[in-house]
Amino acid sequence: MATYDLDILVNGFPGKTATHGGLGWSSVCLLRDGAHTVLIDTGPPAYLGPLHAALDRLGLAPSDVTHILATHLHWDHIGNFTMFPNATVVVGRRELAWASAQPPGTPLVADLHVQRLVALPERTLLVDAGEETLPGISVLDAPGHTPGHLAYRVATTDGDVLFAGDAVKNRYELATGDVDSSLDMATSRRSVERLRSIMVEESVTMVPGHDVPLAVRSGQVQALAPQTAQFSVFLDTTAGETPRVIT
User: Which residues contact 162 (CB under 8 A, 6 or more apart)?
Assistant: First the structure.
């Protein structure tokens, strides 16, 4: 079975505002096995710069990406698939059917990106849970946040990893099952429980939708990397003053 080297291009951030909606800083990961170069989600439109920079550090170009595995079709997870001209987009059959039936302006649904996927069937691979999309990558049902939300289990060189998307957005949701922003809270909680059980019973780690990689050890959720973010706030008006930096 194929195993993949994992690089996290952008770590997700578990933040939300009361006035401006979600920050939308989602996890974007890269998998390589020598034959395939695979992205898990592509982040929000604001990630164009960070994605180009991260790929460049690895000696890659957007044209090198062969596949994109979409967990779901919200704007902060599918916002940049068009920058990868040679990539096949793997998306849940149920998810695309649901998203394409939503009227324009449906909260969080990436209208134009969904329309583009529907218009490019030659670049879109529809999948269902239980399938193996690529060697070493299996598809899991993880509904609730959206009806057709998927998770992916990948055999990496450091062990199996669950890529949960927004089925599990952050360490709080993994630890408590208390989900936020879901179309079906009860179904979401069951998805969290199922993914957590896999982690506990099979010693699998997780990359959540909006946090750093996580593990469950001795019953406790542990972050496997530091969580960092930096904001430059342009509130000063005096010439020569630098922006306030909040870390």
Answer: 140, 151, 152, 153, 195, 198, 199, 204, 205, 206, 207
Residue in this structure with the two tokens 């005096």, named with its chain if needed: 238
* Predicted confidence (pLDDT) per residue in 198-207, tens digit: 999 999 999 9
- Nearest-angstrom CA–CA distance, 41 and 28: 6
Long-range own/partner contacts, residues 214-223 (CB < 8 A, 24 or more apart):
214/171, 214/174, 216/174, 220/175, 221/171, 221/174, 221/175, 223/171
**pLDDT tens for residues 64-118?**
999 999 999 999 999 999 999 999 999 999 999 999 999 999 999 999 999 999 9
Q: Report pTM.
A: 0.95
What residue ranges do the domains of the chain occupy? 5-246
Indicate the SS3 state at residue 150: strand
Secondary structure of residue 94 in the 3-state scheme: helix
Q: Which amino acid is at 6?
A: L
Domain 5-246 has CATH 3.60.150.10: no
Q: Which residues contact 9 (CB under 8 A, 6 or more apart)?
A: 28, 29, 30, 39, 50, 51, 54, 55
